[in-house]
Amino acid sequence: MKILVIGDSCKDIFIYGEISRMCPEAPVPIFNPKYQKENGGMALNVVANLYSCGAKQVDILTNKQNITKTRYVEEKSNHMIMRVDINDAVEEKLTAEMILGINFSKYDAVIVSDYCKGFLDIEIIKYISYAHKLTFLDTKKELSEWAYGFTYVKVNEPEWNKSLNSGERIENWKDKLIVTKGSKGCEYNGQIYPVEKVNFLDVSGAGDTFLAGLVFSYLQTKDISSSIKYANEVATMVVQERGVTTPYGLNNETFSL
């Protein structure tokens, strides 16, 4: 099983601490940091989840410019106090020359993880969709004809609603669109795939886990229904853990502060 992941990536940082009093100079809480966890985020998190599921070889093509998302979290309640993003939009772009240099035929599947940070433009994504016979897309962009070439497209419900409001029609996506709906599961081809009711601790990165589980299972079964069920299962596992993680083992580094 050889998989290529193309898309925006970042570093996720979670700083956990405690809050026991308010600031005397302003109506804000005083945050006392205790430790932090770091891991690769966005496309890098898709890669980590693929390996966690059991993939043996995953290559990634991503931005070199460092994007960081730093979340300050009150440890006891797991309540996020603030998130600080640095380099939220990258200047470097994936070029046509870089794409033309890829031997797509050596991969069993190609995944595009498009967080809309500037690394991928629509024309490049469209080219990728036709460069391989089995392609998966997860995007923050509004969907239209540029994405019709993908085998399967996964978006969350608010993202799909934006596309609907822009005039896109469900008929164009009947056999390829998977819409995730959080605690309600997901919808594919008019069917709802529910998820087990659990105590959600942190949904950060759950969409990456769903995508990785979907692709990993599909490469084994070639059955989209069973693959969606597996994707739901592994995504449900990670939302019960703190931070951005993987279903079969944590993928972050912990540092004392």
Strand order of the largest sheet: 4-1-7-8-9-10-11-12
Unreliably modeled segments: 253-257
- The geometry reads as globular
- Provide the CATH top-level class: Alpha Beta
Rg is 19 Å
How many β-strand runs? 13
**Biggest pleated-sheet summary:** 8 strands, mixed
Number of discrete helical segments: 6
The tally of domains stands at 1
Name the helicity range.
Answer: 25-40%
Core attributes:
about 260 residues, alpha/beta, UDP-N-acetylmuramoyl-L-alanine:D-glutamate ligase, eight-stranded mixed sheet, five-stranded mixed sheet, 13 strands, globular
What features would you describe in this structure?
With 257 residues, the protein is of the alpha/beta class. It has a single domain (2-20, 30-248), classed as Ribokinase (UDP-N-acetylmuramoyl-L-alanine:D-glutamate ligase). The chain has helices spanning 43-53, 96-100, 122-131, 157-165, 206-221, 224-238, and strands at 2-7, 9-22, 29-42, 57-62, 68-74, 79-86, 109-114, 135-139, 152-156, 177-180, 186-188, 191-193, 253-256. The strands form two sheets. An eight-stranded mixed sheet has the order 4-1-7-8-9-10-11-12, with helices on both faces. The chain has a five-stranded mixed sheet with strand order 6-5-2-3-13. Helix 1 (43-53) crosses helix 5 (206-221) and helix 5 (206-221) runs antiparallel to helix 6 (224-238). The longest helix has 16 residues, at 206-221. The model is unreliable at 253-257 (pLDDT under 50).
In short:
The chain is α/β, with parallel strands linked by helices and 257 residues long. The chain is built from 6 helices and 13 strands. The protein has one domain: Ribokinase (UDP-N-acetylmuramoyl-L-alanine:D-glutamate ligase, 3-Layer(aba) Sandwich).
